[in-house]
Amino acid sequence: MAIFSVYVVNKAGGLIYQLDHYAPRADTEKTFSFPLDLVLRPHDERIVVAFGQRDGIRVGHAVLAINGAEVNGRFTADGKDVLEFLGNPANYPVSIRFGRHRLSSNEKLMLASMFHSLFAIGSQLSPEVGSSGIEMLETDTFKLHCFQTLTGIKFMVLADPRQTGIDALLRKIYEIYSDFALKNPFYSLEMPIRCELFDQNLKLALEVAEKAGPFGPGS
Fold first, then answer.
1. Residue 75: is it exposed, middle or buried by C-beta count within 10 angstroms (0-12/13-18/19+)?
2. Euclidean distance between the first and final Cα of the chain, in Å?
3. Which of 125, 170, 196 is nearest to 7 (CA)?
4. Is residue 176 part of a domain?
5. Which range marks the domain in which residue 73 is found?
6. How many angstroms separate the CA atoms of 182 and 208, rounded?
7. Of 20, 48, 190, 198, whose CB neighbour count within 10 A is largest?
8. What is the per-residue pLDDT for 213?
9. Which own/partner contact pairs does 161-169 have at CB distance under 8 Å and 24+ positions apart?
10. Residue 24's closest CA among 7, 40, 1, 46?
11. What pLDDT score was predicted for residue 217?
């Protein structure tokens, strides 16, 4: 079981804190001869597999590295177009690492804002007055848990579907936020959280939750 990431969103929908705690490794690296037996296409400023799943390489996986050098979107480490490079027989054999695209900072900001909007829509669609909004979204690979405070701050945790104790963890994160962000004289409300003690105590709380330990008084 694992906790993948934590997001803190202010009442205006802005992402003020994000931590990637654990990311399952699903990268696959293979050496190919010419011609490449996968169909690659540009998508959202990166090169992805459009057809030809094989050996752990899935449709939608992005090209992450070529010959051990990290790829920057649609370009190789030395600035060459990835599709042009892979279309040249002189560059083979070539080693390519595929995997899930890592979200950029801008993409995380955008997704946090989108969830904020979905949360508001969920509250408005409720047949009962005073709905708490979206508290959990479930997929086959993770669950998104959300806790909104009375002041509108949202704490979100993405975790393995089998992970227990998330409700207690969310409230523990709120407690850590109150103790190490709000009481920090250098912190301004609604602004990004940059506090070493907040980071340290949050990571400790995640480790405790993953081990299914209780959050007792003073923990």
1. middle
2. 21
3. 170
4. yes
5. 28-99
6. 23
7. 198
8. 53
9. 162/1, 163/1, 163/2, 163/3, 163/209, 163/210, 164/1, 164/212, 165/209, 165/212, 166/209, 168/209, 168/214, 168/215, 169/3, 169/205, 169/206, 169/209, 169/215
10. 1
11. 46
Is residue 217 a part of any domain in this protein?
A: no
Q: Answer yes or no: are the C-beta atoms of 24 and 142 closer than 8 Å.
A: no
Q: Identify the pLDDT of residue 205.
A: 95
- State whether 91 and 165 are in the same domain: no
Query: Which residues have a Cβ under 8 Å from the Cβ of 150 and sit 6 or more positions away?
Result: none
Report pLDDT digits (tens) over 25-39.
Answer: 668 899 999 989 899
Residue pair 153/133 in contact (Cβ under 8 Å)? The answer is no
Which residues in the chain land under pLDDT 70?
1, 23-26, 213-219
Q: Please tell me whether residues 110 and 183 are part of one structural domain.
A: yes
Q: Write out the two tokens for 200.
A: 């340290």
**Under 8 Å between Cβ of 169 and 163:** no
